[in-house]
Amino acid sequence: MKTLSVNLDERSYPIYIGSALLSNSELFLPHIPARQVLIVSNETVAPLYLQQLKTTLSSLEVHELVLPDGEQYKTLDTVNLIFDKLLQERLNRNCTLIALGGGVVGDITGFAAATYQRGVNFIQAPTTLLAQVDSSVGGKTGVNHALGKNMIGAFYQPRAVIADTDTLNTLDDRQLSAGMAEVIKYGLIRDAEFLDWLTAHMPKLLQRETTSLTQAIERSCQHKAEVVAEDELESGQRALLNLGHTYGHAIETGMGYGEWLHGEAVAAGMCMAARHSEKLGWITADDVNRVVDLCASAGLPTNKPESLSADEMLKHMQVDKKVVDGAIRLVLFKAIGKAIVTGDYPRDTLISTLSAN
Amino acid sequence: MKTLSVNLDERSYPIYIGSALLSNSELFLPHIPARQVLIVSNETVAPLYLQQLKTTLSSLEVHELVLPDGEQYKTLDTVNLIFDKLLQERLNRNCTLIALGGGVVGDITGFAAATYQRGVNFIQAPTTLLAQVDSSVGGKTGVNHALGKNMIGAFYQPRAVIADTDTLNTLDDRQLSAGMAEVIKYGLIRDAEFLDWLTAHMPKLLQRETTSLTQAIERSCQHKAEVVAEDELESGQRALLNLGHTYGHAIETGMGYGEWLHGEAVAAGMCMAARHSEKLGWITADDVNRVVDLCASAGLPTNKPESLSADEMLKHMQVDKKVVDGAIRLVLFKAIGKAIVTGDYPRDTLISTLSAN
Questions:
Q1: pTM (predicted TM-score)
Q2: Each residue of B301-316: pLDDT tens digit?
Q3: Which residues of A touch B88 (CB under 8 A)?
Q4: Is the dihedral of CA B40, A79, A167, A178 positive or negative?
């Protein structure tokens, strides 16, 4: 087992990465201050891992709530289902919520933990690659609104992230690829050396070779932890982690939640950011190909769907959180391995990027 | 104008108390960092003060949302109306929400500000005595759930509290009395001298004599600011501010939201806390009479409604946030002017307190 740390003074917490962690009560119990626990999972993950985690916590008063699976359920209504359960079972403010599932379960459960009785204890037990390398770390929680993705939420840090890599064995290929988008992202924004390693190891990673996969998760979490420790509330450098996300959110919103997986939309968005940066003369066509080839080798899309027009994309991008007084702030490349956040580009370079496919 | 400060390091903020503040753009503008503003008010307050505030902010892009009036609308559904408005009008993460109204408007709007795009700028412009002396200061935001009061929420501090005392001239007598309950509370928990002053000045206060009323608001805010600065997240001493609230919440929930005003329920609760403390031998019958007489002189109820049984009260008290692993923690009196938080009392003293009227 590997242990990393997210350093946020009194809100610091550990990330554990390894095999058979869901069975390890010595790992969970120190992060649970009182008897009452609610495990929130979904109908895909619960049949596989819920009983195992309940057995691990059998010395406690454990409640469970199984949500429907999918991004389309990442709504305030679903959060309200969690509140209903918490209140029906009379869980008090010393209770602990555990998110057992992927990014959607983690985001919803984290937001419920942030807002139940003004904040209760929270543990992330991510079961997808995407959640293990990205969404479970850093305290972003929240839900979607019909008019925009992740528009409702809170920064709320977990007490611990417990990433059992065994759960990746039951992940389907499409979800594995989607998670790989966020792994690639860390290389693209701040670690060119990791990018070379990923290019070399992509076949092994997709075959779920344990050592490579654990290495990729650890390095990704290390990057995420460093960035979050420097800029918890995303006032500066943390925004780089949104590479591909503003384009990606527009794809997800435009296609309807659940059509494209989040990681798929991010991959397409990263390729669009690369093309946009090339139009600005900041990187070369070879650089763009490197990004596109790596995403393609991970089984990911490399452009927006043709059915979504540039106008529609633009409309959705304009309600993104990164819009500041009219300008759409984007993460673009100054070089591969070096990203910046900027709203300072000619509007027609964005339009032509959105029009190309 | 009086200016106080809530000292919370980088989240510190001023409280302004005085006449004609809603017309003072020099007071508002420094606390609004970008052009987009949404004023949230209700159908009682908006006709009286919304236009005035809009004129004050006329150099900005000002949107407005008028909610129905009443505690029964303090729900997640109402918060969602605010999100709808914010997204329809495309307000970005640099926008400012201004709560123009009483405690309900402030709590709902504050929670929307805490959770829109993971937190946007927020100003409290309280227009009731209760909101000016209590709920607008200290960052408690949130809404009710059918199964319990204030069960959903967040700690989220405003950038400024701007309390225009002129607004109290349009407050009805019942609301003025309800606000007085929280003023009396500060005397009861930590300022016996203020309690004497209140006893002497109650007739003037109820006649809305400006000097006395401003003095009472200032002293109340000073107490609130001190307590919040010491214990922002209510891990200790801030809990004393809940004097009367656990009994009071049970009354509000039991009677249905909106039947009893919050301050009325708190006054009844404070009198019950006094009787409970007497049963424990901590204060005298004379002390109890002093509490009851002061509440009565302010036009407030001094016991729970007869229609609510002890069993019902107990049931509602058990889902209160102050329940920790089974014990109902209450604020009780060691002396008048000295309250403590405790779950350590014989259960039958609580039952007999709840049975007496």
A1: 0.93
A2: 999 999 999 999 999 9
A3: 147
A4: negative
